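Escalated from tier 1: phosphoenolpyruvate holo job.
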Amino acid sequence: MKQGHSDKDVDSVAGAVSQKGFTPHVSRGAERTIIGVIGNDRRYELQSFLENLEGVENVIQILKPFKLASRESRTGESSISTGEAVFGGKEVVIIAGPCAVESRSQLEAIAPLVKRAGAKLFRGGAYKPRTSPYSFQGLGEEGLILLSDIRKMTGLPVTTEVLSPETVDLVAEHADLLQIGARNMQNFALLQKVGKCRRPVLLKRGMMNTLEELLMSAEYIMASGNHQVILCERGIRTFEKYSRFTLDISAVPILKSLTHLPVIVDPSHAAGNWEYVSALSRAAVAAGADGLIVEVHHEPQKALSDGAQSLKPERFSALMEELRHIASAIGREMASGT
Ligand code: PEP
Ligand code: MN
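Tier 2 regenerated the structure:
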């Protein structure tokens, strides 16, 4: 829209867009207002029709297959808040906690320590997508209730994975941030269901998926009405076997150039081994990630899932200190520990 356009102009352009059978999406920035016109049509007449409406400055076709997720569709970065944490701002936000919720005493042992180290959200899976049907599958609803209790105890918002469309409403009752795991990145029914939800979504990249496919999955959630999507690079499958997956560090600057959505990194699942987690975390923050999700366990040798890649709380705390130096060297901030 032109500088100095009125609200009435915005309403009437949005109305005209709807009347033509397209969906308008209004994004108001400090400098300018952009109205997204979503639909499957490239007719030239639409372009000239829109150009002639009152208040319209310019009509740009977004030729990329992802539209709402694309940088062109809004002004500036998306910032997504949960509790005190804001993803996509100046601060690098750290999520930490165990792979899986195992018991109340386990959460009570870990959560206060990661909070003290400066983590802003707590993580823990109640529904676990395990490779083997014989492995621990998570505590399910009982695990969700334990997470809710931990939020009350620590004040930290919680994130947990949602595995199926049927459990989205239940998980959303307990979780502040809904995690879609790598194995479900292209579960389109699940994406559409979380798209109808009010909770922000943490969308992890599938281990065999391209960045364009990741952005198309974000587009599914956004097109269903939920624009609060955080992307997560968590390592992809390559021929290398010394790490569990290969952390695609270039995903961070590439995604940042393609999309306004926040981008975080999971160094734990990429590494598969706690010894490499700190180095990958430092690299991710240096590359410009908006946050990290890190697995921390007080007794990794006894963990029911992913113990080998879990940091002990003391090591996590030392890592946080290193990350603060890197964040400040690149003009970003990180919450201090208490
Ligand atoms: C997890 O975060 O515990 C997890 C299962 O991660 P991913 O979906 O990336 O494998
Ligand atoms: Mn895990």
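The domain at 80-329 is CATH 3.20.20.70 (TIM Barrel).
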